[in-house]
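Duplicate of #3305? Posting structure anyway:
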């Protein structure tokens, strides 16, 4: 029911074990950048402010592997990747896994019909083109149907963002964690930012209590965004001892599939108000203290957050509705194999055979492969869509783009940068960034 619990469900959900999703290459680059910044600077607090706007999908399976099986692979006789170097049958150097995960690379599943993972049908796309809300682009042998960003009025109307969210983000990311003043209170009516103790029972619309929807003596800071939308607002204004039933709608991407997108009710009892919190006005000095940047200002913060909100709105507009009629088998298998290599590399790093890792999730190799193949088809569609947008608008990746990004990542050698992060990943990351710059410019 809470977003934290939702995230935990997503980690445990065996169907979500393959986290290769849309924007995955971009997210990997962003996640890697965060890791590098932390290593180089002991943790860049500016990232906490400016990058919190755009949610990035964490590679949760790595975290679980570290926590559950915190044992590094033996290094004796291995190379840096935890693999044993040996000679191949043709006399060339080959690499043999220290842990035999060859099962990952055997019996590749059939590629599913592209329409089975599309987010709309071709008929729906054709109808949208007729009514002017979608356009048709091409790349190679593929037709790509995307939301009509060329109609500026339509594009602008369908990429809204609320500037009041800037203040909410400032509260959640800066004021509450660092500068809030909390004290005990004798008030008996709950207000925004109070920390309260509650009981609750969640029920479906037919009155049946659902798993994970009941708890007692839960501590919650109102306004923290810890629970699904509408829940915390429902507690504000309640009196101590009062019981109240509120209605909510679970997010479409909620971890528990039986609740995703569903309406529900929560019977909430306010046990007590533990403390009240007051917030000061955001200042340049606060941001400079948190970020470690003596030039950071409120104006800059607001502009950066505003751009992040705009980007979120644009991604949702472009990602939310598209159709690709065909993608290459080569692209699909490339994504699939990359996923298998990722799991193998992770298992080698932590000395854990893939069968043992999957045992913690109660899933099988076949299920893992099936999900990975479905994600590979989705990724291939997604990549094709962005290639089509880039080609239609003359958007490219230049050597200067690569140099700029490499420098940002602390590299002086582009070749080494491309080797470390993967040339395809780097170029696709830059391409999406350049496409976003284009969308912002026309919006």
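Output from current build:
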């Amino acid at each position: 029911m809470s977003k934290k619990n939702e995230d935990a469900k997503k980690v445990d959900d065996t169907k979500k074990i393959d986290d290769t999703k849309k924007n995955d290459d971009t997210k990997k680059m962003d996640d890697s950048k965060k890791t590098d910044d932390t290593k180089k600077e002991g943790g860049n607090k500016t990232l906490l402010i400016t990058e919190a706007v755009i949610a990035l999908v964490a590679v949760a399976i790595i975290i679980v592997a570290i926590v559950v099986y915190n044992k590094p692979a033996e290094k004796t006789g291995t190379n840096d990747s935890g693999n044993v170097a040996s000679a191949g049958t043709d006399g060339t150097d080959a690499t043999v896994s220290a842990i035999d995960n060859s099962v990952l690379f055997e019996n590749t599943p059939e590629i599913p019909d592209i329409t089975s993972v599309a987010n709309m049908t071709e008929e729906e796309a054709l109808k949208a083109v007729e009514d002017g809300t979608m356009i048709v682009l091409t790349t190679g042998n593929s037709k790509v149907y995307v939301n009509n960003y060329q109609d500026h009025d339509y594009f602008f109307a369908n990429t809204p963002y609320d500037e009041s969210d800037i203040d909410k983000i400032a509260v959640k990311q800066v004021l509450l964690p660092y500068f809030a003043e909390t004290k005990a209170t004798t008030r008996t009516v709950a207000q925004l930012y109070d920390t309260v103790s509650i009981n609750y029972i969640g029920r479906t619309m037919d009155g049946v209590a659902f798993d994970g929807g009941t708890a007692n003596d839960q501590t919650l800071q109102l306004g923290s965004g810890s629970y699904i939308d509408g829940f915390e607002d429902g507690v504000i204004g309640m009196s101590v001892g009062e019981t109240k039933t509120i209605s909510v709608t679970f997010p479409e991407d909620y971890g528990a599939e039986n609740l995703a997108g569903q309406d529900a009710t929560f019977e909430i009892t306010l046990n007590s108000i533990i403390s009240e919190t007051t917030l000061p006005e955001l200042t340049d000095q606060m941001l400079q203290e948190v970020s470690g940047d003596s030039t950071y200002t409120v104006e800059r913060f607001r502009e950066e957050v505003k751009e992040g909100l705009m980007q979120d709105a644009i991604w949702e507009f472009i990602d939310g509705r598209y159709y690709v009629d065909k993608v290459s088998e080569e692209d699909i298998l490339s994504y699939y194999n990359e996923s298998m290599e990722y799991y193998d590399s992770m298992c080698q790093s932590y000395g854990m055979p893939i069968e043992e890792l999957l045992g913690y999730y109660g899933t099988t190799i076949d299920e893992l492969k099936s999900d990975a193949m479905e994600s590979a088809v989705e990724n291939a569609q997604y990549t094709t869509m962005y290639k089509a947008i880039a080609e239609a608008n003359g958007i490219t990746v230049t050597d200067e783009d690569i140099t700029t990004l490499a420098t940002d990542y602390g590299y002086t050698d582009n070749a080494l940068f491309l080797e470390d992060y993967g040339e395809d990943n780097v170029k696709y990351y830059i391409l999406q960034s350049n496409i976003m710059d284009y969308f912002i410019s026309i919006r």
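Confirmed duplicate; merging threads. The longest strand covers residues 263-278. The beta strands are 83-87, 93-97, 134-139, 142-147, 181-183, 195-204, 209-221, 243-249, 263-278, 322-324.
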